[in-house]
């Protein structure tokens, strides 16, 4: 990991139930929960899930919105998911994720070929929603 270059560190997702959200991301998506026990014990404000060694998704409860004071209007963002978050995966992990989501009854879109992204043109991509309505795209590049 390079600590002195620009990287995506985390994305905060508003969720109704952080424990249920963490369970979804662990079982249906295959991401490792972080801080779940600490959240359950009231030691931290929210749990997270690890996307990779550099990036996590924070699972913030709607009730945390009133404490969002870093910018005017920040509290108003609760319940408004981002348009989508894109996960770039190796081809085998892409296929595994799609099968895993379908196995857990998560609706997935059709396969979209040739979309552009941070690494150029992706070979395939598809979309799915988490239980809170946050939209994810999964893709892989050759």
UniProtKB/TrEMBL annotation:
Gene3D superfamilies: 2,3-Dihydroxybiphenyl 1,2-Dioxygenase, domain 1. It holds the Pfam family Glyoxalase. InterPro entries: Glyas_Bleomycin-R_OHBP_Dase (IPR029068), Glyas_Fos-R_dOase_dom (IPR004360), GlyoxalaseI/FosfomycinResist (IPR050383), VOC_core (IPR037523). Transmembrane segments: none annotated. Residues 7-141 form the VOC domain. PROSITE patterns: VOC. This is VOC family protein. It comes from Streptomyces achromogenes. The lineage of its organism: Bacteria, Bacillati, Actinomycetota, Actinomycetes, Kitasatosporales.
